[in-house]
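Hi everyone,

Forwarding the result from last night's run.
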Amino acid sequence: MSEQEFLAYLKNELHQYSLIPAQDGPRKREKKQYIKGLMTASRFFGVSFEALEEVVGTTLKPLDGGMDSTAREELLDIPTVIRKKIPISID
């Protein structure tokens, strides 16, 4: 899978996540964990922080307007290695 294919897949997963109603907590948590895993694993395969930030920003920012603070915080729950730009190396 190329980086562009992966980013398109991630964008789709983020979109699917945004469609899950807040009342469906277990399904929303499961999808969130899956997305966090994808984002963390992507760093091992050389996907840049900037590319991840762009996908997250363009996919989730338009949804931010009508959200309450709890939902907004949930969207900001990005894995620490991505948020803090911690380099990952495979030795």
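The two ends are 22 Å apart (CA to CA).

Cheers,
N.
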